[in-house]
Amino acid sequence: VQLVESGGGLAQVGESLTLSCAASGSIYGIDTMGWFRGIPEKSRDLVAWIRTDRRPVVTDSVKGRFTISRDDVGDTVYLRMNDLKLEDTAVYYCYADPNVGPRSWGQGTLVNVTS
């Protein structure tokens, strides 16, 4: 599975951004898709995920501000980020977990929130 993220960029505090992650390849075997964020060369923190049943889960750090969704085909996942804060600045990485096999990662997209 290949993952391509888009939608990152520069935003001011309080603004919104939507990230997209499009999967290609063996998409019918994908179970969970989601997002981590972090700083390159350092650890990544889980932000949100969504399974094929479309039940979204977001972590406490972004609850109430971020929402995750997935299209009907199941090969694109979105992360809507509202009320952005300075601490949301990070590289956001999309991932996909297949029913069988290793996790796939996107290349990452930078979100830079300024005051």
Mean pLDDT: 93
Strand segment tally:
11
The secondary structure category is: mainly beta
Helix content: under 10%
Q: What are the low-pLDDT stretches, counting only 5+ consecutive residues below 50? A: none
The helix tally amounts to 0
Biggest sheet: strands, sense, closure?
A: 7 strands, mixed
Shape: globular
Question: What do you see in this structure?
Answer:
It is built from no helices and eleven strands. With 115 residues, the protein is mostly beta strands. The protein starts with a strand and ends with a strand. It has strands at 2-6, 9-12, 17-24, 30-38, 44-50, 56-58, 66-70, 76-81, 90-98, 104-105, 109-114. The radius of gyration is 13 Å and the shape is globular. The model has no long low-confidence stretch (mean pLDDT 93). The strands form two sheets. Strands 2, 4, 5, 6, 9, 10 and 11 form a seven-stranded mixed sheet that branches. Strands 1-3-8-7 form a four-stranded antiparallel sheet, with no helix packed on it. 0% of the residues lie in helices and 56% in strands.
Short description:
This protein has 115 residues and is mainly beta.
Keywords:
115 residues; mainly beta; 7-stranded mixed sheet; 4-stranded antiparallel sheet; 11 strands; globular
Please specify the SSE layout and strand pairing.
Blueprint: E1 2-6, E2 9-12, E3 17-24, E4 30-38, E5 44-50, E6 56-58, E7 66-70, E8 76-81, E9 90-98, E10 104-105, E11 109-114
Parallel strand pairs: 2-11
Antiparallel strand pairs: 1-3, 3-8, 4-5, 4-9, 5-6, 7-8, 9-10, 9-11
